[in-house]
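ASSEMBLY PREDICTION REQUEST
Request ID: AP-0331
Submitted by: J.K., bench scientist
Number of chains: two
Total residues: 696
Priority: normal
Notes: Please return the full assembly, not individual chains.
Input sequences:
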Amino acid sequence: MWKTLRQIYRVGLATELPPAPDEALRAADALQARILQVLGRALCIRAVDAGSCNGCELEMHALGNPIYNLEGLGIRFVASPRHADMLLVTGPVSRNMEIALRRTYEATPDPKLVVAIGDCGCTGGIFGESYATRGRVSNVIPVDVAVPGCPPSPRQILAGILTAISRAQPASDANPA
Amino acid sequence: MILQWWFDHAPRRARPEGGAIAGAPNLWALTVTPEEWRQAAQDIAAGGGRLLSLWASRSVGGENVVRAAFTAETGALVLALPVAAGSGYPGIEQSFPNASRLQRAVADLSGVRSTEVDTRPWLRHAAWPADFHPLRDAAVPELASPPAIDAYPFVAVEGDGVHEVPVGPVHAGIIEPGHFRFSIVGEKVLRLEEHLGYTHKGIERRFTELPLLEGHRLAARISGDSAVAFSWAYCQALEGMAAALVPARATWLRALALELERLANHLGDLGALGNDAGFAFGLAQFSRLKEHLLRATERALGQRYLMDFIVPGGTRIDIASVGVLELAECVQFIAAEAETLRAIYEDHAGVRDRFTGAGRVTPSLAARLGLTGLAGRASGQAFDLRCDLPCEPYALLAPRKVVHNDGDVAARVAVRFDEVAESVRLIQSVLRELPAGICRTAVVAPREESWGIGLIEGWRGPVLVALEAGVQGSILRCHPHDPSWHNWPVLEHAVIDNIVPDFPLINKSFNLSYSGHDL
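STATUS: Completed
Returned structure:
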């Protein structure tokens, strides 16, 4: 036991500051003020792999490490869409996952948000649309924010999540950088 | 006849690096008749040989050829069986049970059927019609969206108190999708049946739409956690076909990338396994180490996950000069921390209790079912391509083969800990002894009808890429094979008589790929 405690003490706090929301990632401006009221500072996310290569999932996992410390921001991954405020969906959406994705979306209570993760979730990526895939996530369910990257870094994914739960900024203020 | 007979009868049109097939060293090819096909499989199985992969391709003239690749002590052998249009071929599932799902996938995708008794579709659900075979038929029929509901005929278990628990395809975590059907009594698992294919993205057909010199990008995205292994295997096949001489520095950088990929995955798994045993401390510690490694990897090689590092002819970029020292320090730090954490895991009664005896696969069962790679080495299957059929620079690096015999979760954890230490040693060797020179050479697309095979020991096990050139630098056929194909069926055996709540732990200890399998 003392070895465990010693290791915890030795490592200390590793958490870094989170990134700011990024208006460039917003795909649709459908966010109702009500969502923000309902969510407050707590957000429950259901991750859905709709056919990805698993690269995006690795970076979504990283959000939980002590350095990004997602739970420290009041955001956590939940086991059921019925408990979720947001779906984090990776693609491309395979035809074999299309029904499961639609059902997961329907099982998530309103008001809900969808963030598409990765180049494949945003555009279909290198896989495109074919006999086996429907391509981008928005071909199957409505998407609020899309985060490109192959895979996007944990900070980019976090910026996407934070963008989805922030109020849309007027275009002139967006992205001064 | 014996195993060696088949190797001896492969045409000796030897290449300078040994073997007759372009790509990985010591690969031999032999065309057989249907009778010889099954006899060869029996002899190879009896001689301790192992099935690597089984796939079908079509010649330009439209003739079907079914191929099976095997490894043995003396090298790797690829059998080719020409199959006349409209007829089937003899299945080899009696000799190699792990051929069964491969044969079902060939029937789905290429429309070539074996004598296999299990005629259920495997990768095809209800999204496209049964008479459409995407690797045979150019025209795609009209497809409904959303597709019809798929009714897969699971094997039912009957008896007093038996009930079924369906799990998936959407799982309760950040995990790839797949379906598990448990038949249980009380808490105990009587039977598990997997139904996979949910992430089928049409990768093999997509390859045929890409130029040969671009295919490595798709290869890197077959299974995101094995990007280096697949892209290296692809490039190895292509470079062999094109007779390109890859600079020494590039092969060493590729080995560096492969070991970094192995290390990152092992660190992630060791943390997740602690977490699944109720020890969240392990996840926090190991995920922190993994993050340090990914950041050092990005600064040295340009990406956290090396999706675009390996390119035909070498590597996309050279290692950043600041990266060498930083990477060396980072892995040294990780090795020391992993030692500390290993002692903590081993001292922790709760963790030890959950790990020991869970999901046991005995060495004899592992040999019979063809358990491969990391999970195989935890069940006494002492095979590692880096040692057995080494490509450059592994013969020089001389990795230590890690083998344990207990076959339980604890053994699969122990293999990971030992391989973390070994990969750190290899990374340090590469950083110290990296040859000078360029890291990329030009590659000209190989001529039509040339073919080759790449073979790389990824972190999960042997990765194979079989590549055939089409006209004007196009891809006629590319078959990528992930070791998960062999290990998924063994997981069904590993959970028998375990309790349902131990399934996540046992499953994680194998950590098999869905995307790499579903293609």
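REVIEWER COMMENTS: The CA atoms of residues 20 and 159 of chain A lie 6 Å apart.
SIGN-OFF: pending second reviewer
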